[in-house]
Amino acid sequence: MGIIVAIILLVIVIVFVALSVKIVPQQRIGVVERLGKFNRLLTPGVNILIPIIDHVRTYHDLRIQQANVPPQTVITKDNVQVKIDTIIFYQVTGPEQATYGISDYVYGVRNISTATMRQIIGKMELDETLSGREKISSDIRIALDEATEKWGVRIERVEVIDIQPPVDIQDAMDKQMKAERSKRAMVLDAEAAKQDMILRAEGDKQSKILKAEGDKEARIRQAEGQRHAQELEALGEAKAIQSIAEAEKSRIELIRSAGLDDNILTYRSLEALAEIAKGPANKIFIPTRAVDTLGSIGAMGEMLRASKE
Fold this sequence. Notes:
By secondary structure, this protein is of the alpha+beta class. Helices cover 62% and strands 21% of the residues. The longest helix has 91 residues, at 167-257. The strands form 3 sheets. It has a 3-stranded antiparallel beta sheet with strand order 3-2-5. It has a 3-stranded antiparallel beta sheet with strand order 6-7-8. Strands 1-4 form a two-stranded antiparallel ribbon. A hairpin with a 5-residue loop joins β6 (65-75) and β7 (81-92).
């Protein structure tokens, strides 16, 4: 009997300890109620509760959570239905407010996000909606922050995952995109052809310029060569004339040093003329003054022969 009582007491103690000791993991927090009223929060680690009196109402995860908002069909300002898929990142910052401020803050966040999205998209046209994801996300986040502040929830980020227009509009957009791409390709081809023509024209121009400069340089060098050749030729002629003049000067000086006067020189000249006149086809006309001179020269010749005899 005593053993049974001991076992019963041991079981009671074990149950009491199990109900009294609560171990809370990191980044989680528990809300404790005592006799149905909020008492305190359970922090990470070991916590002691009073069994039956204390009760853990709920646990909250303090890490950043994400909530997928179901795709919503909304109407734009230009009466086009689009389907928008969003995701919300949030964090519980006030466990007590998140427990008692709203029954289900995740559901509340989704509803506010949907309502806000309808208001925002209703003020935007389709093109603005498709290109305004950042604006839509920012406006939804601001609206959620204002509503969830008293719930102990902070909205970290709102992302618009996808915006799907109707099928017919999507087809029209695809056709427009293809047309734009074709147009862009044609423009690029035209620009490439234009650039090619410009480069070819520039190359031809540069080639002609270089050729003209080469021809000009060749003519200049040719003219300089001719001028240099003429200068050398003139210099050679000048030197030749100078040499002839110096030779003539030397000859005259030698004749003078030999004692030959003008009459002897004239006689020698007449002898040379006589040799020239021996040819059958040669005729020589002698002026009257030359005949007088010849007479004097003849007399001088006779005198020279007499003196030698």
